[in-house]
Fold:
Amino acid sequence: RTEQGIAIVDRDEDGVDRAFRADVLAGLRQQQKAVPARWFYDEAGSQLFEQITGLEEYYPTRAETEILQARGAEFADLIGPDRAVVEFGSGSSVKTPLLLETIEPAAYVPLDISGDFLRESAAALGEKFPGLPVHPVEADFMRRVALPDDVAPLKKLGFFPGSTIGNMVPRTAVDLLRSMRATLGADDGEAPLLLIGMDLVKDAATLEAAYDDAQGVTAAFNLNLVHRINRELDGTIPVDAFAHVARWNDDFARIEMHLEAKRDIAFDVSGRRFFMRKGETIHTENSHKFTRRSANILLLAGGWTPLERWLDKGERFALILARA
Ligand code: AVI
Structure:
């Protein structure tokens, strides 16, 4: 499933994504109902996320872009030219060019589970940087990915912006950091580098607003998961029975998103019956926030030594450079 060029989505004879169904059914059976956040990103969900990144309340994208714009020369100095930039996730139309413009890379390798996004963003990048070899790889980067032969001998820089690492519980985040080391060839040749974005702990009001915006875009993003379950898994979930909730969990330093039942409800998904009491929730996302220390500890646990970090002017977000 995770090797280069192999179709990754495993569908049954009715075209249902087996992993989606398994995750939803298992998650709805739990005491605290939960569906992994990765299922937000169907076409509508990805568009809503794009919209979120432009919201007044959602500062992380702006803050990280500011760092890339303002501090590019500094990290270009530390990183040096002629590296293959391996991006975990398809490049964003804004951040990736900012990095590629500053560091004079030898190649660009976007890794993504979704072939469509991958091809689109690789083509756009190719047009922007005509001389740069671009090697898109369709793969699940949660496991070690075999890089194309042309790239293997080059020095590597992993790029993982957006604080996507924050959407994983620490155990999964450490697994991913270790997989990244393996993908980047940490044990054969020159030590790879990693440039990673991490959102910082701040007051709960700012964080809760970032995940519960006034226009209701984040609410729509959360509720889109219910629409997706209904559409793809023969669900009968009454979407209007749910409220979007974003709350700061101080014990684990994370924003949690939930879908809270506004009344007692019963519904079916894939032929199974489920019940929820008023006030009961489906936990749909964690977005961990970091301090200097917790970021360093996580990186070290994943096999990376932090070298330098840069913050935006408002000190809301960090870009961290680490070496394997
Ligand atoms: C993709 N990820 C880093 C976003 C975040 O901030 O955790 C997803 C998101 N969820 C709600 N708003 C944005």
